[in-house]
Design a protein that fits this description.
alpha+beta; two-stranded antiparallel sheet; 7% strand; 83 residues; disordered N terminus; binds iron/sulfur cluster
Length: 83
C-alpha cells in the first residue's frame, strides 16, 4: 500500500524538486532570438515583458515567451521593449 502511494506521488510530480519542473520553450526562444546573456544595455530585467519570479531562484518568465520559466534577467531577445 505504501509503495502504491509513493509511486502515485512520484507519477504526479510530488517527488520532483521544484527546479526540475521548470520548463523552456525552445521554439519561441528561437523565434525571438533569445539568448541567456546580453552585452548591451538591453536585457530582460529592463524589458516591459519580463516577469520576475518562478520556480528557479534568479530566473523569471516572459509575457512573450510563454510556457518558459527559465528566462535569465541578463538575457535578451529581439523583442526587447523599454519599461
Ligand atoms: S521580450 Fe525578450 S527581452 Fe523582453 S523579457 Fe521577453 S525574452 Fe527578455
Amino acid at each position: 500500500m505504501v509503495c502504491k502511494i509513493f509511486f502515485a506521488a512520484v507519477s504526479v510530480g510530488l517527488g520532483v524538486p521544484q527546479s526540475a519542473r521548470a520548463q523552456r520553450n525552445p521554439d519561441l526562444r528561437a523565434a525571438t532570438r533569445y539568448r541567456d546573456q546580453s552585452s548591451g544595455k538591453r536585457h530582460c530585467s529592463t524589458c516591459v515583458n519580463f516577469l520576475p519570479g518562478g520556480p528557479n531562484p534568479g530566473l523569471g518568465r516572459c509575457k512573450v515567451i510563454e510556457r518558459d520559466d527559465e528566462i535569465d534577467p541578463n538575457g535578451v531577445c529581439g523583442l526587447w521593449s523599454d519599461t
